[in-house]
Amino acid sequence: MTTIIQTKDGSNSIQSAKFEATYHSIHGAIQETQTVFIEAALIYKAKTQKELAILEIGLGTGLNAFMTYLEAQKSDLHIHYTGIEAYPISLELAQQLNYVERLEATEEQSQFLKLHESPNEWVDLSPSFHFYKQIGRFEELKAQEQFDLIY
User: Fold this and answer.
1) What is the three-state SS of 75-92?
2) Percent of the chain with pLDDT over 90
3) Which residues partner with 78 through β-bridges?
4) Which structural domains are found in the chain, ordered by start?
5) Nearest to 103 by CA among 75, 150, 128, 69
6) Cα(142)–Cα(11) distance, rounded to whole angstroms?
7) DSSP type of residue 102
8) Close Cβ partners of 123 (under 8 Å, ≥ 6 residues apart)
9) Of the candidates 54, 83, 88, which has an alpha carbon nearest to the alpha carbon of residue 71?
10) Does this model's pTM top 0.90?
């Protein structure tokens, strides 16, 4: 069973009873993604490279992918994003998460939901952001490309 929780920055995360863990820091899901993945990884790497292949091991709520998408649009980056997830959340659960509102990105709601609707094939969230979700375990990854960043 999974339960939506509110973290200290006001953004949601998920508490997994199966794994006895939260998907993000309880101190702030958005804050964690911004600090660890966007600033320390994506923005740092984008200083020298505008086209990036990113692998996320454990797509989870889609927050890292969504915030990467938003930063890519803002910073004119070209992203090939592969997310692998053994236990994907349902579309219904994704619709209850408050990331779009907290990030003031309501016009991007459909892109956030596409992260959860997309099949095991490439989907263009924008002309410069290409997303692939593989359902399965990391050991089953079928990627053929090299990755510039791993989340």
Assistant:
1) HCCEEEEEEEECCCCCHH
2) 90
3) 51
4) 28-150 (3.40.50.150)
5) 69
6) 32
7) H
8) 114, 130, 131, 132, 133
9) 54
10) yes
123 contacts 132 by C-beta, under 8 angstroms: yes
**Encoded tokens for 28:** 């702030």
Return the closest-CA partner of residue 61 out of 22, 13, 17: 13
**DSSP letter assigned to residue 146:** -
CA proximity to 7, closest of 19, 25, 20: 25
pLDDT at residue 145 tops 80: no
Give the β-pairing of 51-57 and 21-22.
unpaired
| Residue corresponding to tokens 């791993």 | 150
Using one digit for the tens of pLDDT, what is the confidence trace for 101-119?
999 999 999 999 999 998 7
| β-sheet bridge partners, residue 133 | 83
Nearest-angstrom CA–CA distance, 125 and 33: 20
The average pLDDT across 40-50 equals 98
Cα 70 to Cα 23: distance, rounded to the nearest angstrom: 20
Strand ranges (E), the chain: 2-6, 12-16, 21-22, 51-57, 78-85, 122-126, 129-135, 149-150
